[in-house]
Amino acid sequence: MLIQATRLNKHFGAKHVLKDVSFDIEAGSPIALVGPNGAGKTTLFSILCGYLSADSGSLHFGNDKASTAKRLKNLAALPQDAQLDPSFSLFKQFSFYGQLQGLTAQAARLEAMRVLELVNLQDVSKEYPQHLSHGMRKRACIAQALIGDPQLVLLDEATAGLDPKHAKEIRELVASLSDDITFILSSHDLSELERLCQRVYYLDQGVLSLYDTKGNAADRQHYTLRLKQRAVNFESLLQLAFPTCQVTQTQDREYTIEIGSSHQQFDVALLMFLYQHNLPYHQLTNGMTLENQLFSNKYD
C-alpha cells in the first residue's frame, strides 16, 4: 500500500472543494484521475504532495502517517506547465536538483545520467532546454520528476500539447517505467487513459468515484461496437437476433451492447450477424469505453 486516504475534506472559504474523499493506492499499474475543470483535482494533488493540508480526514503513506518529509522522499509531481531552466544544460540542472535532494555531488551526477537514460535523452544531456523539441522537453520534465527514485509520480496532463507521435512516446515511456514506479495520471484524454490505466478515479464537485476501464459487472458483459456507416433500425434488428441483450446508442454509429455473462461466444455471433446483414464495422471492443462509463447518463 503506497497511500491510504480516508474522508479527506477541504474548504476554501464557503466552498467545499473535497467532500469525504477516500481511496487506496497500491504499487502497480498507472492510475487515472479525471474530472471537469474546478472539480478539485489540483487541490487533491496538492494535499498528496504536502503543499496543502486537509481540513479533516487522514492520509497515510505505507503503514505510517504521511508526514511531509516522507512524502517528499517517496513522491514526485510534474505540473502541466512545468518548465526547465533555460540557463543550464539538462545534465547540470538535474545534477543540481539531485544535490537539493541530499545527494553528494558525485551521486547527483550519476543520478542525472540515470534519469536521462530512462527517458532516452542521454545523448542530449549537454543541450539546453530551448534547443530541444517540444516532445523531448516533455520527456526531460518527466526525467526531472524521476530524480531520487520516487515510488509514486503524479503527472498532470503529461501529453497536453504534443502531436500524436510524441504523445505516443510519452505513453510508451510511462508504460515502460510502470514496473518500478506507480503513476497517477491526470488527463482530459480518456482514450489515452484507457490504454494505460485499469483503475480510474473520477472527481466531480469534490466527490470521488472509482471506475474500472474493463467496465463489466460481475453478472453482465458489455461490448462497444462502432459501425462504419449508419444502420437503419439497427437496435431493433439486433434485439430480434439476440432477445436478451440490451442495446444503447451512445453516439453516432456507436453502440453499447449488454448481455448476460452466461451467453457463450457472443462476439463471434455478433460478427456473423453483422456479416449477414452487410453491416461493416469499424471496431468491436470487449467492455464499455471509459467515456461511456462516466457520461452514459447523457445518452439515456
As a percent range, the share of strand residues is 25-35%
- Helix-strand string: EEEHEEHEHHHEHEHEEEHEEHEH
Number of alpha- plus pi-helical segments: 10
Q: Biggest β-sheet, characterized?
A: 6 strands, mixed
Rounded mean pLDDT score = 86
Weakly predicted, low-confidence segments: 215-219
Helix content: 25-40%
Q: How far from one another are the termini?
A: 38 Å
Q: Calculate Rg over CA atoms.
A: 23 Å
Principal-axes geometry comes out as globular
**Strand order across the largest sheet:** 6-7-8-3-9-10
Counting DSSP E segments of at least 2 residues, the number of strands comes to 14
Helix/strand-derived category reads alpha/beta
Protein name: ABC transporter ATP-binding protein
GO molecular function, one term: ATP binding
Family: Belongs to the ABC transporter superfamily.
Keywords: ATP-binding, Nucleotide-binding, Transport
Short recap of the structure:
Helices cover 33% and strands 29% of the residues.
Describe this structure in words.
The protein has 300 residues and is an alpha/beta fold. 33% of the residues lie in helices and 29% in strands. The chain is built from ten helices and 14 strands. The protein has helices at residues 41-49, 68-74, 90-100, 105-118, 134-145, 164-177, 190-196, 234-241, 266-276, 290-295; strands spanning 3-12, 15-25, 31-34, 56-61, 64-65, 75-78, 152-156, 182-186, 199-204, 207-212, 220-227, 246-251, 254-260, 281-286. Strands 6-7-8-3-9-10 form a six-stranded mixed β-sheet, with helices on both faces. A four-stranded antiparallel β-sheet has the order 2-1-4-5, covered by helices on one side. A four-stranded antiparallel β-sheet has the order 12-13-11-14, covered by helices on one side. A hairpin with a 2-residue loop joins strand 9 (199-204) and strand 10 (207-212). Helix 3 packs across helix 4 (105-118) and helix 5 packs parallel to helix 6 (164-177). The longest helix is centred in the middle third of the chain and has 14 residues, at 105-118. The radius of gyration is 23 Å and the shape is globular. Belongs to the ABC transporter superfamily.
